[in-house]
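request received
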Amino acid sequence: MTSLYLRWGGMLIVAIVLTGLTYSHYQQHLATLSPSQAKAQGLNQEVRVLGMVRGGTLEGNVEGGDATFALVEKDSTISVRYHGPPPDNLRELKTLVLIGKWNASDNIFEARDIGLVTNYGFVVGAYLIGLIPLAIFLFAMSRRVGLLYEEIKTSKLYQEE
Amino acid sequence: MNFFNVIRWIVWKDLVTELRSRETISSMVFFALIVILIFSFSFSMDQQAAREVIAGIIWVAFAFTGIIGLGKSFSAELQNDCIEALQMVPESKGAIYLGKVAANFLFIFVVEILLFPMFVIFFNLDVVEEISLLLLIFFLATLGLSAVGTLFSALTVQIRAREVMLPILLLPMVVPVMIAAVEATKGALNGDPLPMYSQWLELLAIFDVIFTVVSFWMFEFVMDN
Amino acid sequence: MIIHRVIRKVQRFQGWFGGGAALCIIAGLYIGLIGSPPDYYQGEVVRIMYVHVPLAHTSLFAYIVLSIGSMWYLWKRDPIVDNMCHAVAAIGAIFTTLALATGMIWGKPTWNTWWTWDARLTSYTIMLMILIGYLMLRTFIDDSEKEARYAAVLAILGLVDLPIIHFSVEWWRTLHQPQSISMRGVSISSGILIPLMCMSIGMSLLFSYMLMVRTQLLYLDRLLHAKKGRLMSQFHMSKTDP
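response:
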């Protein structure tokens, strides 16, 4: 029984480490800021900004990958200059993620790419719902097998034959 | 007593019991009438809506009444331990299965024939041209239902909570029958040309053949004591 | 008997199965969640596939094991095979439920609906119903030999029925909604394939490991009951003997 608990303790530690790694990975590479945070934070560092393209502000050669528009999130707004690969989801009133830098001298956000809006909730939910019941089920079974072995051993039921 | 005699005697026995008591068929018919009533309350039906859902209603009613009949088929044998006498028949158990399938099929089919005019009257159906085709659909679907249902009736009769277990086990198994019967009935009632839904009739026929054979074989293991 | 020898042989490697499953799943999770790039169309949501698809495959595998075991039982009447069938049905029911649940979570962001009467989803649901019916049937029978026999009959009928259910539901779907939802859009690139393979192998190993543990559990339970019953009857006999 001790070895069972040790094994499962090891699994638990590995699971926690994996969760921590995943969390820090997403914080570094995929977390998004709101426009006002981007304005406050990013000097020369690249950030991801989540917001909606405000209606009536999209101008420039959108198909060619050159455009300017205003990005809104709640009540904060920044103006954006997009220059990068031709986007296929840059439309007015579209919520999207912009990757780029805040240019403080021109007071404009210079985006170089557009990412998909990520639904972390679904991914997290699917992994938790998929794996945790399996783990609990397996743990309960293994524990019960251990208990049964012990019961058989202590009750000396097995000696007769 | 050879194989076919066993089948004949089982059918005869069930028919005579039914003719004397009239329990199964009358309870099935009245249950189905109540189902029809409930359905007509739960959908507010005009002519157009009726066309869309009537095939489904017909088959839900038939399936539920069928389950009543199938449940009674073997639970009647429990009285005076008749089921043990059946297990001692010195012939292949498959003969008992085929006899019971035939008897159940007859009961359910008769109930369907009695009920169908009610549907025609209550829901204003227009069926004069398609009647032979509808009978064929009823025939095939009822055969499939009773082929699987008879086996499950024998299987659930000797366990606890048999009234609950029969529909729980039977209904998922007969999903293909229900889908095919509903689609074919819908086609026939709408007056579509036959090639549009003949695939469903083929599916029903295939299901009947496969499940009669498999259940015939499996019945040995169910009755074997 | 041959099956006993096979089971004993395989049982000796139980730890390897468990360890292999743990390693593969940990590697698969790491690559799937961190190492692999997001999909071009689906973005990060594609990572749900790495847990959903292995669960779905494994639950089908469980049904195949169940029906083969049931046929073997009806042929040889070996109680340990029956224990295995009982075990695999419970595990299969859990895998199917989880496959459906993760599938629903995947469906919401990609198809914008939790549930659709898609052919595959519908036949999986019916398969789950049959498995649950199987487990319920087993709880309602007292005599263990009869329980095993009836359950085996039900499993074999279900096996025959599953392809028919799948085809009929597929026909029915194409009739009502010609453009059935499919998983096109996900092109299988190597970035997706590696974590998917890791998780698939890991889940199959995990399934085998769980099957061994649960078979053992049911076997020990049966053993304990039988021994206790025998002791009890001996005790009563000695009391009633003059």
